[in-house]
Amino acid sequence: MSLAVVGSIAFDAVKTPFGERERMLGGSAVHFSLASSFFADVHVFGPVGEDFGNEEYAILQNRSVNTDGIERVEGGKTFFWRGHYEYDLNMAHTDDTQLNVFGDFEPKLNDSARDADVLFLANIQPDLQRAVREQCPDAKFVALDSMNLWIDIAKDSLLQTIQGVDAVFMNDAEIRMLTGQSNLVKAARELLQLGPRLVIAKQGEYGAALFTEHGFFALPAYPLEDVIDPTGAGDSFAGGFLGYVTQHLDEGGELDDDAFRRAMTYGSTMASFNVENFGTERVRDLTGEEIAERFAGFKAITQFEEVAVSYR
Ligand code: AMP
């Protein structure tokens, strides 16, 4: 099974209490691709400008991400995002967003994207996400991510796009904002009623929760002592989750609840590595052994024995 992602490919300027980078490779599709590349064949799609060079391509290609779908726009500039975090690393503050080549991007997917079994519509304008979704009618499993900006300026379009996907990944605050429902359980149920089979609420340093029609599962974030830069944690989470899904989906696009719990754990594992350094700096050099070790660590911190207790 193969996996395709469409989303932002960016240069990011990021400042956290622990340091800063003035210009580094980022973007929702980039973080997603690197994380999912440990589990599946990944094809990344999106436009870049002339300022996107060999160094940036190499970061993706070194992880065997297929970059044939990156469209280099002559005379264009790559999407740019500037943000900062204060001591509460759960909250990204956007200082500048320059859409640049995304301003007039019209997605025309090649065959490898159209034939992908699993499709991730990473964070980008919801009209574009829908245009991509419509070009992949045969995908077995489609998921999307979004953010507060699009809820503010394109809410109806986002709600329409959600109707055409199997899974929604969003921050808990954004799920509340989108539904106008302050209780997360009720808010997630409202989104499920629009059509998706799964809603995954990302809760930053508190972990993530999975809502399905009849089920619920939650995991804490891995207890790390040093968190340097949370940028891309959400996309790395989605990358680990959907990478695992791509490996295990059956021909009918089905997967049981236990497998989705493992997908949650791989998502949390990849997100935990992502935050250990700036941008892509940690995930791009990761090894399979490190992933397996942290996955086992997650299992150890989330299981417990049941013993008989008498209640009075
Ligand atoms: P996250 O996983 O939510 O931390 O996503 C971080 C990435 O999202 C950064 O690398 C940014 O380049 C990218 N990003 C920020 N704002 C937008 C936006 N409005 N549309 C698409 N991508 C964005």
Task: Tell me what the structure shows.
The chain is of the alpha/beta class and 312 residues long. It has a domain at 28-45 and 110-301: Ribokinase (UDP-N-acetylmuramoyl-L-alanine:D-glutamate ligase, 3-Layer(aba) Sandwich). 36% of the residues lie in helices and 23% in strands. The chain is built from eleven helices and 13 strands. It has helices at residues 28-36, 54-61, 111-114, 126-135, 148-153, 155-162, 172-179, 184-193, 233-248, 257-274, 288-302, and strands at residues 2-6, 10-16, 19-26, 41-48, 70-72, 79-84, 93-98, 118-121, 141-145, 167-171, 198-202, 208-212, 216-219. It has a nine-stranded mixed sheet with strand order 5-4-1-8-9-10-11-12-13, sandwiched between helices. A four-stranded mixed sheet has the order 3-2-6-7. The mean pLDDT is 95. The structure holds adenosine monophosphate.
Outline of this structure?
This protein is an alpha/beta fold and 312 residues long. The chain is 36% helix and 23% strand. The mean pLDDT is 95.
